[in-house]
Amino acid sequence: MDLSDDLGDDLLDDEEPAVTSGIDGSWTWAWEQGGVHGLDERILSHVSVGTEAVVLHYNEKPMHWFKYAVGGEIIVDFHTLQAIEPAGQDPAKLDDVMRPLGLIPGQVAPLHSVLALVENAFDIRLRQPDDVDDERWSGRLLPLPD
User: Fold this and answer.
1) What is the pLDDT of residue 37?
2) 59 has which bridge partners?
3) Which InterPro entries does this one have (predicted)?
4) Which residues pair with 70 in a beta bridge?
């Protein structure tokens, strides 16, 4: 089943985006289509209370935006629109994994290096479902509060 069958033109609504979720190993993931709710620090902080959370955002600019949060705090935060400048509570926390991938502060990120970071640092495998008919929970998110 394709979400566009149910949502049509509303699938990529940036105010109330559609989200699909699943489980991969020890991680629960959510794929947000058409919105940026996952990048909102209020949401990411809340989701990471008592655990950790990773956000990987991609858009057509092209750029990736990466955020890593633990216990309600944003630990590492950077994007690849220009030379990366990690921010957060401990921006060097992932340096040992980032540097071998070419993710070096002040330098432009190599293509796909952020995808490799997510896989290497967290063992999150970004892959297609094993079966086209794999069951996935999905729904529409409410607009972000001001």
Assistant:
1) 78
2) 63
3) DUF6461
4) 52, 73
pLDDT at 73 (0 to 100): 97
- Residues 45 and 74: beta-carbon distance below 8 Å: yes
Q: Please enumerate in sequence order all residues whose Cβ is within 8 A of that of 6, keeping only pairs 6 or more positions apart, or say none.
A: none
Looking at residue 6, its amino acid is: D
Sheet containing 73-79: give its strands across: 52-59, 63-70, 73-79
What's 71's DSSP letter?
T
| Contact predicate 101/113, CB 8 Å | yes
Q: Are strands 27-33 and 52-59 parallel, antiparallel or unpaired?
A: unpaired
- Per-10-residue mean pLDDT of the chain, 146 residues long, equals 55 64 79 79 91 87 90 96 96 97 96 91 74 56 61
What whole-number distance in Å separates Cα of residue 83 and Cα of residue 78?
Answer: 10
